[in-house]
Specification:
Elements: H1 11-22, H2 28-39, H3 42-54, H4 58-86, H5 90-100, H6 109-140, H7 149-160, H8 163-183, H9 185-212, H10 217-225, H11 234-247, H12 254-259, H13 268-296, H14 307-318, H15 322-356, H16 360-381, H17 402-429, H18 432-439, H19 443-469
Transmembrane segments: 29-46, 58-78, 109-133, 166-185, 192-212, 232-261, 273-295, 324-345, 365-386, 406-428, 448-467
GO molecular function: symporter activity
Protein name: Transporter
């Protein structure tokens, strides 16, 4: 592969050569680790249980699983493929492909949505990451040992009511993300993820093991896996779809950014499926860890964003060596959130570097700084601005704080919209020949994928959107 940097190089030279300049993942395994690092995060352990609780359990989980299979995996393949083909930051990969194949420049919007969603998500993601950091201290100091559900609840509301503590941990989390991004993807990411992800998995299993002893495991499993469609609302379907995007890190070009570092030989389909299966497995395990504790302690499954911070501490307070395991668990949760946070910042920084010619450190400081500042609004909406609902006049958004709105707008609108554009781009715009080359699937499998991104995904996303608008 030749490396071209002269301005007169052809686009296909650029397509061929750009990967070589930027350093590639060292192996398929490394890519899987990094993509899993992005996918597995607060979305699996914090968000999945709470949205499942809020939306009534089984039927919601079923729709969510369907969304992963029918919408998530095909779009992940499309994103990785576009990224590898373009070999640049998402914005420029799309631009390169559109210019080379003489397509309409409007497709650059895909990259733009990604950059916008990245800013917005990271701003509140970092605040929740901060909660996890704060809980390391709470757990390690032994404060949770033998506490009642009320006492554990009070510790949590104490944290939320304190803007300066929240701001401190939000700042620490954002700084952690920025340090790794500033150092570059290869040296920072791969090493961290390869150790931390398996460790998180093991600890989660441990909590599931404890949850089995509560005597409410069966009830929890029924709650998660016995669909009761009377509990499913149309907005629940939207949340399930949005969460499928959020949890797989789709719709904001993260997988595109990572795909741009993927060597040509590696199978995009196999890697995408592996990442999705691991991600879903972690979410289901988190559900199996948390709901038995919810039922055993008479807690409310629909308790909202605080759910895991009210249930897991209870478990750690009661299990043998809970202080040790609890501390470890929250440390690992921070790592899971950290690797996801890194992937939220990466596309923005890549774009600033290429587009604005800034160096990596300056781009990281600029982008991270903006996210940090935005995060202050989320910090305040947990306390001083808890009653401020800026869009409360819209029935669907009644009572939603700035924090709730950011979460809702990014996961349920921006990401599915980004995903829809990716599906349309792959399904209707990109050259079929190029896609066949990138994916190298059997003709049947290629057609199956192609029909999905061309018809099934766009129609599914459109129907869910239209229903919810009505
Ligand atoms: N997938 C991450 C999680 O489940 O926590 C969150 C996330 C990361 C969403 C990166 C979107 C993204 F681009």
């Amino acid at each position: 592969m030749s490396v071209t940097s002269s301005g007169s190089a052809t686009y296909s030279d650029a397509l061929e050569g750009s990967n070589a300049k930027r350093g590639l993942w060292s192996s398929r395994f490394a890519f899987i680790l990094a993509a899993t690092g992005s996918a597995v995060g607060l979305g699996n352990i914090w968000k999945f249980p709470y949205v499942t609780g809020e939306n009534g359990g089984g039927a919601f989980v079923l729709v969510y699983l369907l969304c992963i299979a029918v919408v998530g995996i095909p779009i992940m393949m499309a994103e990785v493929m576009i990224g590898r083909r373009g070999g640049r930051s998402p914005v420029n990969s799309i631009r390169l492909i559109t210019e080379r194949d003489r397509l309409k420049p409007a497709w650059k919007l895909v990259g733009a949505i990604g950059v916008l969603a990245g800013f917005l998500i990271l701003s509140f993601y970092s605040v929740i990451g901060g909660w996890a950091i704060s809980y390391v201290g709470t757990t390690a100091s032994g404060q949770l040992a033998g506490q009642s559900a009320e006492a554990v609840g009070a510790i949590f509301s104490g944290l939320l009511s304190n803007p300066s503590t929240l701001l401190l941990w939000h700042t620490v989390f954002m700084a952690l993300v920025m340090v790794v991004v500033a150092r570059g993807v290869r040296s920072g990411l791969e090493r961290a993820v390869s150790i931390l992800m398996p460790a998180l998995f093991v600890l989660l299993l441990l909590v599931v093991g404890y949850a089995m002893t509560t005597g409410h495991f069966g009830q929890a499993a029924a709650f998660l896996f016995q669909p009761d469609f009377s509990k499913l609302t149309t907005s629940g379907v939207l949340v399930a779809l949005g969460h499928a995007f959020f949890t797989l890190s789709l719709g904001m070009a993260v997988m595109m950014a990572y795909g741009s570092y993927l060597p040509k030989k590696i199978s995009i389909a196999k890697t995408s499926i592996t990442v999705s299966v691991i991600d879903t497995g972690v979410a289901l395990l988190a559900g199996l860890a948390i709901f038995p504790i919810v039922f055993a302690n008479g807690l409310e499954p629909g308790a909202g964003p605080g759910l895991i911070f009210q249930t897991l501490p209870l478990a750690f307070g009661q299990m043998p060596m809970g202080t040790l395991f609890g501390t470890l668990f929250f440390v690992l949760l921070i790592f899971a959130a950290w690797t996801s946070g890194i992937s939220l910042l990466e596309p923005i920084v890549e774009w600033l570097e290429e587009q604005k010619g800034m160096n990596r450190t300056i781009s990281t400081i600029a982008a991270g700084g903006v996210c940090w500042a935005l995060g202050i609004a989320s910090v305040l909406s947990l306390n001083l601005w808890a009653d401020v609902a800026p869009l409360g006049f819209i029935p669907m958004l009644e009572g939603k704080t700035i924090f709730d709105l950011l979460d809702f707008f990014t996961a349920n609108i921006l990401l599915p919209l980004g995903g829809l554009l990716v599906a349309l781009f792959a399904g209707w715009v990109m050259s079929r020949q190029a896609m066949e080359n990138e994916l190298s699937l059997s003709p049947t499998m290629f057609n199956l994928w192609f029909i999905t991104v061309r018809f099934v995904t766009p129609v599914a996303v459109a129907i869910v959107f239209i229903y919810n608008l009505m």
